[in-house]
Amino acid sequence: MSGPLKEGDTIAQRYVVQRYVGEGGMQFVYAAYDQLTERLVALKTPKNKSAQKRFRRSAVVAAKVNHPNVAKTLDYIRDGDDRYLIEELVEGEDLKAALLVHTEFLEPYLAAKVFHHLAKGVAAAHHAGVVHRDLKPTNIMVVGGYSLAELKVTDFGIAKMAGEELREAVEGGDESMTTSQTAVGALPYMAPEAIEDPASVREPADIWSIGAMMYHLLCGKLPFGQGLRAVPQIIAAQVAEVPPFLGAKAQFKPLAEELMDIALSCLKKNPAERPTADQLVGRCSELCYTSSVREFGIVRRYMHGAFGFIGTPEGDVFFHNDCVYGAIPAVGDRVVFASYIGGDAPRALPVQKTGTDA
Q1: 42, 88 in Cβ contact below 8 A?
Q2: What does the pLDDT look like over 213-234, one tens digit per residue?
Q3: How far apart, in whole angstroms, are the C-alpha atoms of residue 82 and residue 341?
Q4: Does 5 fall in a domain?
Q5: What's the pTM value of the predicted model, to 2 decimals?
Q6: Which structural domain, as residue segments, surrounds residue 329?
Q7: In this structure, are residues 137 and 161 in contact, taking their beta carbons and an 8 Å threshold?
Q8: In whole angstroms, how large is the CA radius of gyration of the chain?
């Protein structure tokens, strides 16, 4: 390995490194300029020699998947002793950074949109015979934040590599599980069979991971807890109790309960009892959810304690407490919301309280 890449480094006389983006459990990621196609791409390079040996095989696997909800693998390069994977650059943030920083959970309309697009991306992979094996929020990229302009599953290129590292970590015992970055990040979303018999991991394990992520997005907590303490609950498929706020308001209850029912169907102990990705896509396509743009604002005033106005740069937006999901915001609180024309002024639905920064 030649060491970390720097801005201006040129790979294979074609890709010019622009900036460092981040890293996963198996690879470093850079934004690079493709001089041939004149566009920015993601350039990934393995973190160690063990990963390097598997990089080409993983690139071949990833290139089989072609879908709008999957980051496309574009090229594989061997430059001297180094290996590089070229992938579509998604100019956004991972699911956790994009949607679980300002709010602890998602309102059902947005969660349904995430669920639908995630299921479509995974279904496309399964049609191509590719199992991800490492689905988690940091492997899902979102463009547009809460407006969710795009959602793309990434790192199919290291799916096999991640699966092998997870197997090594599990078979190596607790010490390996706690020292493997891939295993630690994946554990809250790992299927029971991925822990008990890693070699048996097939498509149903991805379905489990989707269900675990959706529970997390809907409830604001992990379905089985975090760290090694979650292992017994995962193996027993003992899902944490669903918080009461999901069904607290008639405005949101039907969709929230339907989403949770789908998520829990993915978290069946027996892989054969879980829906397929195609079945998930089918159920999600029947959901009624809004694709409206989300924006941030600040609650300016309340009237009669039941309704009020959200201040935005474009003017005030009316809202009623019945349209608020989760905690009722106070005057001065920041909220994220979608709006529609109603009466003489725009009205907000849904409305959700956020943290102070947005």
Answers
A1: yes
A2: 999 999 999 999 988 889 999 9
A3: 56
A4: no
A5: 0.89
A6: 295-353
A7: no
A8: 22
